[in-house]
Amino acid sequence: MVFDGTEILIGKGAQAEVFLYKGFAYKVYMKTYPAEWISFEKKQQREVNKAGLSPVRYYDTDDSHIIRMDYIDGVMLEKIINDCASGKKVDEISDVPDGFRMLSKAFNFIHKADISEMDIPHFSETAAMGLSKEQGEKIIPVIERISAKSGECLCHLDMHFMNIMIPKDKSGFTIIDWMNARIAPPVFDYARTYVILKEFSKEALGLYETTVLPDLKELRISEPDFIDAVEVCSIVRAREKA
Known about the structure:
about 240 residues, Aminoglycoside 3'-phosphotransferase, Chain: A, domain 2, globular
């Protein structure tokens, strides 16, 4: 596939760039990125589409390293929160904590999904991939123990403010980037976001603790289980960053 020069770069990550081109978003991966992982991402998206969790559809192109996607005309929640924090007037949220509370809404929206016919891997099946034998033997029993104790649901496992889009028409929010989604106990979604925020901002982590983590009590998730889940997610996150 060849762009004609009118494409606009709208996003950039470690493995791919995203361009707006002729009304669609195009995710262009580095050629070194495994094609089978791209196929897996497209399969994940089809599953969340079927479950009604995302309106964004993925389309094949003539290049295995380029995905065409429906374009969301909106802004990332991250920008809205940053604007609010800097004193700019925004219509979507009333204050910064209100932006964090959108995470609670996003978690609740995902965790209520019907997983009975969802072809998404279980966290316990993939969490040890790329880890040492010792690390795998440490985290898999924890995942299995918490699963047996609290049950499982769909988890996004990469929930942060750049993966929540607010459409310009203010029609709720759209969650993107479902590559890491797994069937798992909900505590791992909360723990994964905790680990991500801890890496970037002490202030953001504090707001997360006061506005989102109280949900754990309502879900009857114990503090020891949350601590164990954080350790699991820290190990998996370190592997991803290596």
